């Protein structure tokens, strides 16, 4: 591992970009920020497209290595830069497997299958692009609440974090989804409320919220006549 990593994070302003900012703060990493936003034209510049042909945020540059997808960025940082003093990933085989299960569950069932479906079809979100569909939004919200039973059961034993006594990057993924669900008026399970309040008090979370602010979008350059 490079003792002084050259890290640049592209992206800010969304529930996914905050994950990468938060992981960096948890690990005590210094990094540069390119606070571009989605659907602003900033992800379609020639410079950014060379780095990420998908034209999505966030994107992490670690020297000459680039990685996209928020959960993958968090997993990479967790594996690459965790230390005994600051660790976001369990090492024991079965603990690591349980961590993977939580990460995959949050990304697949709570984020992509539920919350992002709502985002795509809400009139106040991306419905103007993908079509406003209130019934789809309602069903996605119901599916989110049903899947949150997994969280409700896990937290019923009073554990402070998903992996027990130890905060991990799985908590980063879950918290961003809980924040998102509340913002969308979906509601969250009873045991998740004290969990969320506890995590929101973390100084690293508050720093990530402050860092996750998109800059003004790039102004379109008029074509020369």
From TrEMBL:
Task: Write down the PROSITE patterns for this protein, in alphabetical order.
Answer: GST_CTER (PS50405), GST_NTER (PS50404)
| SUPFAM superfamilies with a match to the protein in the record | GST C-terminal domain-like, Thioredoxin-like
Which is one Pfam family of this protein? GST_N
GO terms, molecular function = transferase activity
Transferase as a keyword?
yes
Q: Which UniProt keywords apply?
A: Transferase
InterPro entries, alphabetized: Glutathione-S-Trfase_C-like (IPR010987), Glutathione-S-Trfase_C_sf (IPR036282), Glutathione_S-Trfase (IPR040079), Glutathione_S-Trfase_N (IPR004045), Thioredoxin-like_sf (IPR036249)
Would you say which domain of life the source belongs to?
A: Bacteria
Q: Name the coiled-coil region(s).
A: none
- What are the residue boundaries of the GST N-terminal domain, all occurrences included? 4-85
Enumerate the spans annotated as GST C-terminal domain.
Answer: 92-221
- Name of this protein: Glutathione S-transferase
Query: What organism does this protein naturally occur in?
Result: Bradyrhizobium zhanjiangense
The lineage, from the top, is:
Bacteria, Pseudomonadati, Pseudomonadota, Alphaproteobacteria, Hyphomicrobiales
């Amino acid at each position: 591992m490079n003792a002084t990593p050259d890290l640049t994070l592209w992206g800010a302003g969304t529930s996914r970009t905050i994950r990468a900012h938060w992981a960096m703060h948890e690990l005590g990493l210094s990094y540069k920020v390119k606070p571009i936003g989605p659907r602003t034209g900033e992800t379609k510049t020639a410079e950014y497209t060379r780095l990420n042909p998908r034209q999505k945020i966030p994107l992490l540059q670690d020297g000459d290595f680039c990685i996209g997808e928020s959960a993958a960025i968090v997993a990479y940082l967790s594996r690459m830069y965790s230390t005994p003093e600051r660790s976001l990933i369990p090492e024991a085989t079965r603990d690591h497997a349980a961590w993977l299960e939580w990460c995959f569950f949050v990304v697949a069932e709570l984020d992509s299958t539920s919350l992002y479906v709502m985002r795509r079809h809400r009139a106040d979100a991306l419905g103007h692009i993908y079509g406003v569909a209130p019934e789809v939004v309602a069903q996605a919200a119901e599916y989110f609440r049903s899947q949150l039973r997994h969280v409700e059961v896990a937290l019923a034993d009073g554990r402070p974090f998903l992996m027990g006594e130890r905060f991990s990057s799985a908590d980063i993924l879950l918290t961003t989804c809980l924040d998102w669900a509340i913002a969308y008026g979906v509601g969250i399970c009873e045991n998740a409320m004290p969990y969320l309040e506890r995590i929101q008090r973390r100084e690293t979370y508050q720093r990530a919220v402050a860092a996750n602010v998109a800059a003004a979008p790039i102004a379109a350059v008029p074509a020369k006549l």
